[in-house]
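In this supplementary section we document a worked example of the pipeline. Step one takes a protein sequence of length 183 as its only input; no multiple sequence alignment statistics are reported here. Step two produces a three-dimensional model, which step three serialises into structure tokens for compact storage. The input and output of this example are shown verbatim.
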Amino acid sequence: MKKKTFGMAVAATAALLSLTACVGLLQRHPVGNRAVPEPRRAVEIQRYLGRWYEIARYEQGFQRDCEEVTADYSLRQGGGITVVNRCRRPDGRMTEARGRARIADQASNAKLRVSFFGPFFGDYWVLDHADDYRWAIVGEGSGRYLWILAREPTPGDAEVASLIERTRAMGYDTSMLRRTRQR
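The serialised model returned by step three reads:
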């Protein structure tokens, strides 16, 4: 009888894990670009470091309803990059997520792997950036994630329109972009 109970417990656990995985897949953001391009140019990591303000994004569960979003990048002692993301929630409180990044493509420095949760890393591709690093367009290979970043919190309307058009030219569905309010 103990073997049967154990077997049923294993089967129930497997079913629960499968159901959880399916629910997680259903909640993923839709694909906004089925043919994500390779990054357009190399990244000078020293110039990419510092504060970035989010101008627009594909809304994700972990960022739902966030405003005043910033991302700060700095070198880690011993190698890699420290990532600190902040956002203001609808109730007014600021939240912060600390992570780490490592360069995945040493030839261009444009592809990184970022982790906010222990050993789990996700792709982070700097798809394009200004020569002077005043803006950057970031995504990854699945086409589900997209961020438009700038060095200033509120670039002019013409620059924002130009960046949105740039993402459209890369194949992204810009109707899925959510503009971020900045102070």
